[in-house]
Write a structure and sequence with these properties.
By secondary structure, this protein is α/β, with parallel strands linked by helices. The protein is built from 7 helices and 5 strands; from the N terminus they run ββααβααββααα.
């Protein structure tokens, strides 16, 4: 299905998405992106922009550069394991998207949220939620790409300090190698203590 470049052309719509909800380690990372109508149309016409999970790493990395260079505004926020453990992963994901939207250097008129729920606040504009929105709207797909690429980059850097878990390849997700690393080396400071670390 072809992405829509916007809902209303002449307003600053900020797509919001997150990456890393299902991981055992590392932050949940949220991004918010405002695309100009012209840039959104160009990305849609190119036909490559999509939900980040459906793209190869090389395509994600190329699109990240394009988005960061040409977006009207973008922001990325990491919400760490301690906060995830304190407030739960859903609330941490929602908090991350709110923070990313607030961090934009252009004030959005409207938020497009990936998912089926969002808790707004008085300092944020109106919003609408879209299940699988990263496969429906260009701005959410762009946010999906920034959230994933920034998070993967962080997990790769953490892997250099904690190489036992294979974060350079699994990004903190519960792979067999990651669970074996936990069994052999225990938990790192970057693991989410509230998650079941060793269950299948």
């Amino acid at each position: 299905m072809k992405l829509e470049p916007w809902i209303e052309k002449n307003r600053a719509e900020a797509g919001c998405d997150e990456a890393g909800r299902g991981c055992l380690a590392g932050p949940v990372t949220a991004a918010s992106v405002i695309l100009s109508p012209e840039f959104a149309e160009a990305l849609v016409q190119e036909g490559v922009l999509n939900d980040s999970k459906k793209l190869s790493k090389s395509v994600r990395d190329r699109l990240r550069i394009e988005i960061e260079l040409h977006a009207t505004a973008w922001a990325v926020v990491h919400v760490g394991p301690a906060e995830i453990d304190a407030i739960n992963i859903l609330q941490a994901s929602l908090a991350g998207m709110r923070r990313a939207a607030r961090k934009l250097n252009v004030k959005p008129d409207f938020l497009l949220i990936d998912g089926n729920r969002f808790v707004s606040s008085d300092d944020l504009p109106q919003h609408a939620c879209f299940v699988k929105g990263d496969g429906r709207f260009a701005s959410i797909a762009a946010a999906s790409i920034l959230a994933k690429t920034h998070r993967d980059e962080l997990m790769h850097s953490l892997h250099l300090e904690f190489p036992h878990y294979g974060w350079d390849t699994n990004a903190g997700y519960p792979t067999k190698a990651h669970r074996e690393g936990i069994q052999e080396s225990g938990l790192s400071p970057h693991h989410r203590k509230s998650f079941r670390q060793l269950s299948g």
